[in-house]
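Section 5: illustrative case.
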């Protein structure tokens, strides 16, 4: 009957760095400049991430999701056909400078998943494996948002302000 709105929501400002040419409804998260990061995702079985989902929120509040779809391009847990793109996929994101946060949503076969997030120079900003994130946040041209420390709450030197683990520092 024409009463449904199937609009695409995103940045509709053509002068913005994250302009979406197919979006028809502005979400208010346009940014004037951005930095490209790459999310490199792998799946050891090769059938996609089976509804496992990495969510990244940049400093401007833009939310990005990353996953490997199944062989049909769907977000499912019931298609186990292996294919070349099911083993490894990379996406580039244009994110605002500052502190970005990450979260993980478990799907099926989480132990098959891994990812790294790199900057344009190939430096690893964050990573994860088997649904476990290396840290809760990472800096995009900003080192102030990562606090390294002991994240084991039963350790003597537990640091509740830490959002990234230090190498073998827990006692």
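Designed sequence:
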């Amino acid at each position: 009957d024409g009463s449904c709105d199937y609009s695409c929501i995103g940045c509709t400002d053509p002068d913005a760095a994250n302009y979406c040419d197919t979006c028809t409804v502005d979400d208010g998260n346009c940014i004037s400049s951005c930095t490209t990061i790459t999310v490199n995702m792998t799946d050891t079985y090769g059938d996609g991430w089976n509804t496992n989902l990495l969510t990244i929120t940049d400093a401007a509040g833009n939310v990005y999701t990353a996953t490997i779809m199944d062989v049909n391009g769907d977000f499912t847990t019931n298609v186990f056909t292996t294919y070349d793109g099911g083993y490894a996929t990379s996406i580039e994101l244009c994110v605002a400078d500052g502190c970005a946060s990450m979260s993980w949503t478990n799907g099926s076969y989480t132990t098959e998943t891994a990812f790294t997030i790199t900057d344009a120079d190939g430096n690893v900003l964050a990573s994860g494996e088997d649904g476990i994130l290396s840290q809760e946040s990472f800096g995009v041209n900003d080192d102030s948002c990562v606090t390294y420390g002991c994240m084991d709450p039963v350790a003597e030197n537990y640091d509740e302000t830490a959002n990234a683990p230090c190498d073998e520092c827990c006692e």
